[in-house]
Design brief:
With 110 residues, this protein is an all-alpha fold. It has 5 helices and no strands. It has helices spanning 4-14, 16-39, 46-59, 63-77, 86-109. The longest helix is centred in the first third of the chain and has 24 residues, at 16-39.
Length: 110
């Protein structure tokens, strides 16, 4: 679900002091987009929205969530935005975020 190696690499790249701020910014931006998808997904912008989410997820190691965003982005790009399982994508983010928050300290302690 979470690529902890990627998370550790990001922390090394930005530095331990700035890592918490990077995570906070990521969560704020992605939470905002997820709330829009949760309440009223816009089929006309779904491809762009999922592209943004995919990139953000990859940066922070949300592997499974990123894969679902990629699948939805591809469907949207091929004219099948209505076939995207938005609730599944939102659920994946919720699960990934919970895992990330709960396991971050122990995952990076090693």
């Amino acid at each position: 679900m979470i690529d902890w190696t990627r998370v550790a690499t990001l922390r090394d790249e930005v530095g331990a002091d700035d890592f918490d701020e990077v995570v906070e910014i990521f969560m704020e931006e992605v939470d905002e987009m997820i709330e829009r998808l949760r309440k009223a997904p816009d089929i006309s912008t779904l491809e762009k929205d999922l592209h943004f989410l995919k990139g953000s997820a990859l940066n922070l190691g949300f592997r499974d969530f990123s894969n679902l965003c990629q699948q939805g982005e591809t469907l949207s790009a091929n004219g099948n935005a209505g076939a995207v399982d938005v609730p599944k994508i939102v659920q994946s983010y919720d699960t990934s975020k919970r895992s990330f928050v709960n396991d971050l300290a122990s995952a990076l302690a090693g």
